[in-house]
Structures are given as C-alpha cells and as structure tokens.
Design goal:
The protein has about 350 residues and is of the alpha/beta class. Helices cover about 35% and strands about 25% of the residues. The chain has 9 helices and 15 strands. Bound molecules: nicotinamide-adenine-dinucleotide and (3R,4R)-3,4-dihydroxy-4-(hydroxymethyl)oxolan-2-one (89Y).
C-alpha cells in the first residue's frame, strides 16, 4: 500500500456496534468506505448516507460479486461469521471479524484455516486490549518498571443495562463469558501470557436473562504466574463503573493498578506515581462508552499499520483461538466443577 492508494473496504452488518467501526474508518485516511451491507435495507442505506459509501447492499454475495475490495470488516453477530468469511476468502478479500469469532471452537478453527488457505489476512476485532488505559498499563509493564509479573487481577463488574442496546444478549444460554469475559480473558493473556490451567465458577443472578451473568476464573500461566479474571453484570454499585476494566498487576519490583476513574497508579522500586489515563471524548464518542469507542479506532489503525508493515496483527485469528480456548475452558470448568488444562 502506498500513501496514495487507499484500501478499499466494505463493512457487513450496520447495527449497534458497527457505528463505531464506521466512525473509525471515516477518520482513517488510508481507508475508503466503498460499500456497506446489511440484510436490513434501512440500516444499510442509513450507513451509506451517513458515511458517504458509494453503494449499499442487502446481500453480501451480491456485494462481493460487484465490488473490487481489499478487505471487509464483518460486524454481524457470530452465527453469520463463517459464511461471510468463506465468501471473502473465496475472492481473496482480507478480513476483520468481530468477536466472538464463531459459536464453536471448530467453526473458529475453520475460519482461521479458510483464511490461511486463501492467503488472506485475518484480524479478530478484539478491541479491549487496545483501550488506551489498558495500553498505558501494558506500556508500563513492557518498560520493566515492575519487573516480571507474577499476579494479575483483571476485573469488570457492572450493573449496566447492556440488553437494551444488544437484546440478543438476554436470550443466549451462554452470556457473560462469551460476550464480555472473552475480552477480559484476552486482556489477561496480553499481560500474563498463555494459560496452563483454568478453573471457573459462574452464577446466574438476573432472572430476566437466559445465561450466566457472573463468572470468576482462576488461571495458572506458563512460567508460574497466576491470574484472577472476574466479570459481572449483576453488580449494583454507584457510581456505575461501566465499561471500565480494572487491573492489578504485581511484579517483583512493584505493582500496576488501573483503578476506577481511569487512574493509573504505579508502584515501582518503592516510588508511587499516579496519572489520569481517561481518553478524551472524540467528536463521535460519548461517555461512558468513549473508552470502548476509542479502542475501535485504535484497533482499526493497528490493522492498517500492520498491513503496511506486512506484519501479523496482534489479534490475528491464530492469536484469538487461544483467547477463545480460554472461554471454552471456563464453560467446561464451570459445568464440570474441575480444573481444565489448556493445550500448549
Ligand atoms: P446488531 O444485531 O445490532 O447488528 C448486527 C447487524 O448485522 C444487524 O443489523 C443485522 O441485520 C446484520 N446482519 C446479520 N447477518 C447479516 C448478513 N448475513 N448479511 C448482512 N447483514 C447481516 O449487533 P451488534 O450489537 O452490533 O453486534 C455485532 C457484533 O459486534 C457481535 O459479534 C457483538 O459481539 C460485537 N460487539 C462487540 C463489541 C466490542 O467492544 N468489541 C461491543 C458490542 C458488540
Ligand atoms: O458486547 C459486549 C462487548 O463486546 O463489550 C461490551 C458489550 O457491548 C456488552 O457486554
């Protein structure tokens, strides 16, 4: 890619969360929104009008046949990902897919294999590790200020009503681990590395939804580190902290704490510093979602940067299989009451 040639992108699925993808692509100069597609014609048309796409489609196959694309950004829910990835790969079109990649590990593996066989790039839209407060904590860790980490707590506890914006979350038999826990487990992996064993307990507190809404996992990592990853949508507390992920990372020389209110406190060799790492709101972001919205932009920029460098994105399909395996291990552990050993 030269600076003059823009990457030709189409977005499939113009629903609730895709608005953040569209705003982000619109602010990345290296990318042109060529087409949008949603099986709901009104949503596709609205996205076309708002973001200046040349054409809107209701049928992805028709769009792939008609358009010359460099990549597609798939922002539909997981049941449709495999079929859409297969269409893209068959035409040599590179792919970004929203999390969770698919409803089963086997389908996730098929998505990864299909892209590899076709020689197309694949990135999973796993944006939480790209939140600027989490990037700030990861930077402190990479600088060696606390030394090698031996403990991490990654915590997301909220009572925010996510069901009004995403009604499908209320009817799924599996809820918090596959929807939200997947992000927090991924953040934990990005800090502590791969897992060896995992034990999880889930709870179903809200009687109005079908799935588990609290999940507490204990992980032993390769190299001996230990993590607690706790997620809840049944936590009633004011001020409501949604959608903040809190971190406590302990190492041989100190501790990194990402505290409520976006305060990053670092204890390093007996010295304490604290800074505010809350992202500014952009013209299209609103509190309290701003930290998630901005992470979409950070992730999409990462896609363009890694493409330019010819490097694999951090959250490649292969990388994401490991995060997905943690989610499946957590369900398996919660159902069996046993510790699950992860494949190395
Ligand atoms: P949504 O239902 O609001 O939007 C999905 C859209 O896709 C709908 O408009 C639907 O008509 C369209 N669609 C479905 N199948 C299609 C197909 N085959 N062809 C064309 N259009 C199709 O859902 P949402 O809440 O926006 O969630 C979408 C995805 O984003 C989910 O996987 C969800 O987990 C994920 N999500 C991620 C984050 C994050 O922070 N990464 C946050 C929220 C949602
Ligand atoms: O779908 C979820 C996600 O990925 O981030 C937060 C969310 O929107 C609700 O749990």
């Amino acid at each position: 890619m030269t600076t003059e040639t823009k990457l030709r992108m189409a977005l499939i699925g113009c629903g609730f969360f895709a608005q953040n993808h569209l705003h982000s692509w619109a602010s990345i100069p290296e990318v042109e929104i060529v087409a949008v597609c949603d099986r709901d014609a009104a949503k596709a048309e609205a996205a076309k009008q708002s973001f200046g796409a040349a054409r809107a489609y209701t049928d992805a196959a028709e769009m792939f046949a008609a358009e010359k694309l460099d990549f597609v950004d798939i922002a539909t829910t997981m049941q449709t990902h495999l079929a859409l990835v297969e269409m893209a790969a068959a035409r040599g079109v590179h792919v970004i897919v929203q999390k969770p990649l698919a409803p089963s590990f086997a389908d996730c593996q098929t998505i990864v294999d299909t892209c590899a066989k076709a020689g197309v790039r694949l990135m999973v839209h796993e944006n939480f590790r790209f939140q600027s407060p989490i990037l700030a904590a990861r930077r402190v860790l990479a600088e060696g200020r606390i030394g090698r980490p031996h403990y991490c707590q990654a915590s997301f506890r909220s009572g925010y009503d996510v069901f009004s914006g995403q009604p499908y979350l209320a009817t799924e038999k599996r809820f918090i681990l596959i929807d939200l826990g997947i992000h927090i487990l991924d953040v934990c992996r990005s800090i502590m590395g791969e897992a060896e064993t995992l034990y999880c307990q889930t709870q179903h507190i809200n009687p109005k939804i079908a799935g588990e809404d609290v999940a507490t996992s204990l992980i032993r990592h390769v190299g001996g580190g230990v993590s607690v990853v706790d997620c809840s949508y049944a936590s009633r507390r004011l001020p409501e902290p949604f959608p903040q992920t809190l971190l406590r990372i302990e190492g041989e020389h100190g501790t990194i704490e990402l505290l409520e209110g976006y305060r990053l406190r670092v204890t390093s060799h007996g010295e304490v510093t604290e800074e505010n790492v809350e992202p500014e709101t952009l013209s299209w972001t609103q509190k309290p979602w701003h930290v998630l919205q901005e992470s979409v932009l950070n992730l999409q920029r990462h896609w363009v940067d890694s493409w330019r460098k010819g490097a694999a994105p951090e959250t490649s399909g292969t990388d994401n299989l490991r995060t997905y395996a943690l989610v499946m291990a957590a369900y398996q552990s919660a159902e069996s009451g046993s510790i699950v050993t992860l494949a190395s």
